[in-house]
UniProtKB/TrEMBL annotation, chain A:
It comes from the Bacteria. It comes from Candidatus Amunia macphersoniae. Keywords: ATP-binding, Nucleotide-binding, Transport. This is ABC transporter ATP-binding protein. One of its GO terms (molecular function) is ATP hydrolysis activity. Gene3D superfamilies: P-loop containing nucleotide triphosphate hydrolases.
Automatic annotation (TrEMBL), chain B:
SUPFAM superfamilies: Winged helix' DNA-binding domain. Keywords: DNA-binding, Transcription, Transcription regulation. The keyword Transmembrane helix does not apply. Residues 14-82 form the HTH gntR-type domain. It comes from Candidatus Amunia macphersoniae. Pfam families: GntR (PF00392). GO terms for molecular function: DNA binding; DNA-binding transcription factor activity. This is GntR family transcriptional regulator. The keyword DNA-binding applies. The lineage of its organism: Bacteria, Bacillati, Candidatus Dormiibacterota, Candidatus Dormibacteria, Candidatus Aeolococcales. It comes from the Bacteria. InterPro entries: Tscrpt_reg_HTH_GntR, WH-like_DNA-bd_sf, WH_DNA-bd_sf.
Length: 301, 133
């Protein structure tokens, strides 16, 4: 299976400060991957390294097996990028913006762009600066999609949008994926959206990859345990504790396990993605998760 | 228009593909979906719910493996079977038994939450018994 993005020991330093460090991950083609982590975790840096806006300070990154810095033309032809806050030339009209995209890109599907915007009721004659936030986001998405990218990367695409515009944006994005089968990598703080649209997850914290996995494997590999509080630590046979919270008599643990917990003292529950992500974000020492084998699970079409 | 429209409970913690398969199971049991009915196309579901297309395909693949639906290339996904379950008569008898039990439980002082907990614990205990057996 080809990887859309593959990085090995990837790092980027600004002065003495490492924004991203020893980042090794693989995002298979056909996935919709979510990139989450606190502000300053290195999400934007990773995206910028993947499109070749930044040069790695260490290690390497490849997009469909090609280096985005050394072969930037080749990579840019395959990649669409929607930067944070959907920057557009505010003085340009929508049709002028499309014309700019058409002239600047080697591949450009003007019909796709125009019919998409018409369906959304976005007038061609309006200046981008006069559009609503949701409309600007849709125009930015439209520009990225008109390139017919094999990989679409979006930096916080919905963070500035109201709930309705957010949903409409994701509808457009998911419909586009259904139509084209492109791979997506999007960073977001909205975990509910990530849960809704993504099938792959990368958690970054303090510039390191904490988790990189298919979401189904990730969720099925964790359990929420409730049981009587024990003296002598939180160890559970056959599992690694990600988070432990204690009452005086009862403990709640989030554990990573490859099988079932056999100890009958623990009441076992499935855990939702949002709670799981929060547990990892809270406990940044919970260790880097090795990339699990993805064979057979949730294969892309 | 397709026979059913899917909905999602974002707070349930149940994986999306399983929410979709459950809704189909439920619709089949209730007779809302019958043999020959067409499920919404993947694209329709994606457009309506803003979810990952792979998730819809995953749900449909599961249903196909269960022998309940069949995807016909270029046409769509159709219901071909209804899941085996108790007959109508059995179901009514079970339901009457359950009503009796719920009344007993209320008389014994259990509220709805207490009943929920007891049902959960019992299901779990029986499940682990079966696993050991």
């Amino acid at each position: 299976m080809t990887a859309a993005i593959e990085s090995t020991g990837l790092g980027r330093r600004y002065g003495r400060q490492w924004a991203l460090r020893d980042c090794t991950l693989r995002i298979p083609a056909g996935r919709i991957a979510g990139l989450v982590g606190p502000n300053g975790a290195g999400k934007t840096t990773l995206l910028h390294l993947a499109i070749g806006l930044l040069e790695p300070s260490a290690g390497s990154i490849e997009v469909f097996g090609i280096s985005p810095r050394r072969n930037s033309k080749e990579v840019l032809a395959k990649v669409g990028f929607v930067a944070q806050d959907h920057p557009l030339y505010r003085g340009f009209r929508v049709d002028e913006t499309l014309e700019l995209g058409r002239r600047l890109n080697t591949t450009w599907d003007d019909d796709v762009a125009r019919s998409r915007l018409a369906r959304l009721g976005i007038p061609m004659s309006k200046r981008c600066g006069d559009l609503s936030g949701g409309q600007r986001a849709q125009v930015a998405l439209c520009l990225a999609l008109a390139k017919r990218p094999q990989l679409l990367m979006l930096d916080e695409p919905v963070s500035s949008l109201d709930p309705l515009a957010r949903r409409e944006f994701l509808q457009e994005l998911m419909t586009a994926v259904a139509d084209t089968g492109c791979t997506v990598l999007l960073s977001s703080h909205v975990l509910a959206d990530v849960e809704r649209v993504c099938d792959h997850l990368v958690i970054l914290s303090n510039g390191s990859v904490q988790v990189a996995s298919g979401i189904e494997e990730l969720v099925s590999g964790h359990r929420l345990l409730v049981g009587p509080r024990r003296t002598g630590g939180d160890a559970v046979a056959g599992a690694e504790v990600v988070q432990a919270t204690h009452g005086e008599r009862e403990s709640t643990l989030i554990v990573r396990t490859s099988g079932r917990i056999l100890d009958p003292a623990w009441e076992q529950h499935e855990i939702g993605l949002e709670d799981l992500v929060l547990a990892y974000l809270r406990n940044t020492g919970a260790g880097t998760m090795p990339e699990p084998e993805l064979a057979g699970a949730g294969e892309p079409r | 228009m397709a026979a059913i429209a899917f909905r999602l409970d974002g707070r349930s913690g149940v994986p999306t593909y399983r929410q979709l398969t459950r809704q189909v199971h439920r619709a089949l049991r209730l007779g809302v979906l019958e043999r020959g009915d067409q499920l919404p196309t993947a694209r329709e579901v994606v457009e309506a719910l803003a979810i990952n297309p792979n998730t819809v395909l995953r749900a449909y693949r599961d249903l196909e493996q269960q022998g309940l639906v069949q995807s016909r290339p270029g046409q769509g996904t159709f219901v071909v079977d209804v899941p085996p379950g108790p007959s109508l008569g059995d179901r009514q008898a079970l339901r009457r038994g359950l009503e009796r039990w719920v009344r007993d439980a209320r008389r014994a002082g259990l509220d709805d939450e207490g009943i929920d907990t007891l049902v959960d614990v019992t299901l779990r205990d029986l499940a682990s018994e079966e696993e050991i057996a």
